[in-house]
């Protein structure tokens, strides 16, 4: 196993600078997810770590050794792709064994390692099949088997679950997590899906346009997003954003919404918030309470039941917000509600920069 370190890693394609400069340290045995919208440079970054893409400038270390100039097969990594990349004419056994055979490992050792991986991935009875005789999830497991048998120092995953249907994705996600708990191989996992990143990783790194916006544990990013990009990206359904202003009232400074309603300021942190500041107020749908004695009047526009919970789209003095209520609550379009929110659960961002203020 090994640590991975990126120092001022930069990538250009011709004149286009895709990754300006990334610093990132992944500890031995850690599971880090790189998450960000499509086109933000995730695959480019992972392919540079794998050695499949040239590094324009900067240094890459694996296990403390600088590997910029090493070929992929000299880097002690294994990569799992979205499109599995299995050999259609080979059996499951040969697909898993391929790299070991290529490396000229002894037959007995190959058999043992493939057998072990197959047991771990529940593929033991499928070793004679060809890829076209497998389901999508089984094919994905074969691709993982091929990575596991090499016992690499680092696993690199590039959206490995994107081709699976929703139910299988959830199942495979759990299998990848269990696998990591068993083998503890340092893992870097790229995805555009924030739920996948949050559920799998020890640490989540949010990327935007080739830059790190924020990194932290899943709950750190959820509870204290550092800017509106991260706030809007982490959490589902997404955080509501409302234009507002800090204003004075008889009881001290408040957040004044555009409709005129006022909310008490969260403490601590209110010190940064000067009356007159133009802000964006971030409110998570799951933190909005729609009882009778709230401070902000709203009107229900749309009700979307999902079972355990119901998503409620509300008009709030000209703005639209989403709230989540218990699935058994009776609520209908046209209902009048009154919103309240615990001050500690308000996220306050500077309007001009999007940076968190509280
Ligand atoms: P992601 O994996 O986050 O969706 P990519 O790393 O694949 O994003 O791509 C990042 C950016 O780099 C995109 O704008 C893409 O068009 C560009 N890009 C990727 N590969 C190449 C290439 N070989 N030549 C030129 N531009 C590329
Ligand atoms: Mg990609």
Helix content: 10-25%
Q: Summarize the main sheet.
A: 6 strands, mixed
Task: Say what the CATH topology of the largest domain is.
Answer: Rossmann fold
**Proportion of strand residues:** 25-35%
Q: Strand sequence of the main sheet, in spatial order?
A: 6-7-8-3-9-10
Provide the CATH top-level class of the largest domain: Alpha Beta
- Low-confidence runs (pLDDT<50, min 5 residues)? none
Bound molecules: adenosine-5'-diphosphate, magnesium ion
Mean pLDDT: 93
Overall SS class: alpha+beta
The radius of gyration over CA amounts to 25 Å
Note the run of SSEs as H and E: EEEHEEEHHHEHEHEEHHEEEEEEEEE
Q: What's the shape?
A: elongated
- How many angstroms does the end-to-end distance come to? 39 Å
Total strands:
19
Helices, by number, come to: 8
Can you tell me the CATH superfamily of the largest domain?
Answer: P-loop containing nucleotide triphosphate hydrolases
Integer tally of domains: 2
Annotated CATH architecture of the largest domain: 3-Layer(aba) Sandwich
